[in-house]
Amino acid sequence: MNTRDVVFPAGRRALYERNRYSPAIRANEMLFVSGQVGSREDGSPEPELEAQVRLAFENLNAVLEAAECTFDDVIDVTVFMVDPQSNFERVWSVVQEYWGSAPHPTVTAVGVTWLYGFQFEIKVIAKLREPSAS
């Protein structure tokens, strides 16, 4: 088996190791990022929905940054929402703050009944940047 090329953001390694998953893995010039939620440093959910979505994006951006990427490198997004019928517009107004300009990535939005105490999760696939020639 090949060794996984795991990407860890600064300061949250213990949380990932405790829960036994990798925040992101580099493979075939792509970055596969695990679902990111609006968790505080201790792993607890940010209680207010819009703040939780912002924190999920901050956590996502920390993973992307650790892989020398930005949201501009994201090509595919999957979002999960508890009660999307009630929460979609509130969530999507915050998402636009982080989305950037067109062309936008592909997106799949999935309504769920449970996210381990969270209301929103975002999972992405990004294209890794080519190493710059020095």
Automatic annotation (TrEMBL):
Q: Which InterPro entries match?
A: RutC-like_sf (IPR035959), YjgF/YER057c/UK114 (IPR006175), YjgH-like (IPR038743)
Q: Which GO terms describe its cellular component?
A: cytosol
Database matches in Pfam families:
Ribonuc_L-PSP
> In which domain of life is the source organism classified?
Bacteria
Query: Molecular function (GO) terms listed?
Result: deaminase activity
- What's the protein called, per UniProt? Enamine deaminase RidA, house cleaning of reactive enamine intermediates, YjgF/YER057c/UK114 family
